[in-house]
Design goal:
single chain, Rossmann fold, 10 helices, about 20% strand, FlhG, YlxH/NBP35, P-loop_NTPase, nucleotide-binding
Length: about 250
């Protein structure tokens, strides 16, 4: 008897500003999800300056650019970093990959759907900013997760991207994760501040998924190229990531 296979949930992890810990969040969040026997695929969507492989110390032989150019099976580019965690590497130092044309976007969408069928979660780590690939990935995904810090410039840039996606692409649900938070009060103040702006000008209330506290273990793990959920399983940041992973599906 035929059975209906559950479709993977595709999450786009994005930010307006660089330097907010987006890729580190993606890698550690994906690992946390995979601990519950979920099969997780991370797609490095930073088409010009990919670095998911750097944080996981992966040796890349084939990347997204190679697949797009050759038309080969995208499964050939997958790297299993852990038993339940695979990575589809992006390209680095290739300017033409930053702005994909319509045909390339359609081919990429087909490749992603083809390879995603074997997974429960697909997590796309986009570039920072408002480039074409960032906008396209946000439209392609089922849900987004915006990473921002309490830094006013981070909030300003996140709002710029949210406004663009809302007004020009009809996306009206946004999920926030605050990174580098120095306490609950600071986290709540940051969320309240950006929500006041989006409610006033866009008539949108953003969903707050949770906070990742400022933690020296995170920077140490990045320098060591080891995910902090593995290097320091008892750290504050690790506990926060696992809490997010446990409730993200029910929240969105």
């Amino acid at each position: 008897m035929a059975t209906n296979k559950k479709q993977p949930l595709t999450l786009c992890v994005t930010s307006g500003k660089g330097g907010v810990g987006k890729t580190s969040f993606t890698v550690n969040f994906a690992l946390a999800l995979s601990r519950n026997d979920s099969r997780v695929l991370v797609i490095d969507g930073d088409m010009g300056l990919a670095n998911v492989d750097v944080l996981l110390r992966l040796s890349v032989k084939t990347n997204v650019r190679d697949i797009l150019e050759s038309g080969a099976d995208p499964r050939q580019a997958l790297i299993f970093a852990r038993p339940n965690l695979a990575v589809l590497p992006g390209s680095s130092g290739v300017p033409e990959m930053v702005s994909l044309g319509t045909q390339q976007q359609e081919r990429l969408a087909g490749f992603i759907r083809q390879v995603a069928a074997d997974f429960d979660y697909v997590i796309i780590d986009t570039a920072a900013g408002i480039g074409e690939s960032v906008l396209w990935y946000n439209q392609f995904a089922d849900h987004n997760i915006f990473i921002l810090s309490p830094d006013p410039t981070s909030m300003t840039d996140a709002y710029a991207l949210i406004k663009l996606l809302c007004r020009d692409y009809g996306i009206n649900h946004f999920n926030l994760v605050l990174n580098f938070v120095r306490g609950l009060r600071e986290g709540n103040h940051t969320v309240d501040t950006i929500n006041r702006v989006t409610q006033r000008f866009l008539k949108l209330k953003l969903a707050h998924l949770g906070n990742i506290p400022e933690d020296k273990a995170v920077r140490r793990a990045v320098l060591d190229q080891v995910p902090f959920v593995e290097q320091t399983p008892g750290s504050k940041a690790t506990r926060a990531i696992h809490d997010l992973a446990q409730r993200v599906h029910s929240l969105i």
